[in-house]
Design goal:
single chain, alpha+beta, 42% helix
Length: 141
């Protein structure tokens, strides 16, 4: 037994409410997605830095055993992997690794490709570290 007006319950969302949600999601995506991409790219750069440090350790290990570095110049990551046994880089998809080595020293280079094209990391036997180009906000190492 109802007295007066009967109450009608509505279920669901209005079109205006749905459009507001879509606009808020679009704004968040426009801000968050580029920041996330930069974050991921910075992660690739730091992993490439670790790859170079690992390669330097492998060369130093060889120097300690034989009192000489291998005399080799490589132009691809595959050649570099072949010249230094036991070294396997994690960032082959985003970086090419090269090596210029004499009996008394070396220079290692990681050159970015795809999204990191133009990013160049260098490491020398005297622990000189260089970073040039656009490396996703990484400024030094």
């Amino acid at each position: 037994m109802l007295k007066g007006k009967s109450e009608v319950r509505q279920h669901g969302f209005s079109l205006v409410e749905l459009m507001l949600v879509v606009v808020v999601i679009a704004i968040l995506a426009t801000i968050a997605l580029p920041n996330y991409r930069d974050y991921v790219a910075r992660g690739h750069v730091t992993t490439a830095q670790a790859d170079l440090a690992t390669l330097a350790l492998a060369l130093t290990n060889r120097f300690q055993r034989q009192l000489t570095y291998p005399t080799v110049t490589t132009t691809t990551t595959a050649e570099t992997k072949g010249a230094v046994t036991g070294w396997s880089p994690a960032e082959v998809e985003y970086f090419d690794y090269t090596l210029v080595s004499t009996a008394s020293g070396y220079t290692l280079t990681a050159t970015g490709k795809e999204r990191l094209d133009g990013c160049v990391l260098k490491l020398s036997d005297d622990n000189t570290r260089e970073l040039s180009g656009d490396c996703a906000g990484v400024e030094a190492w």
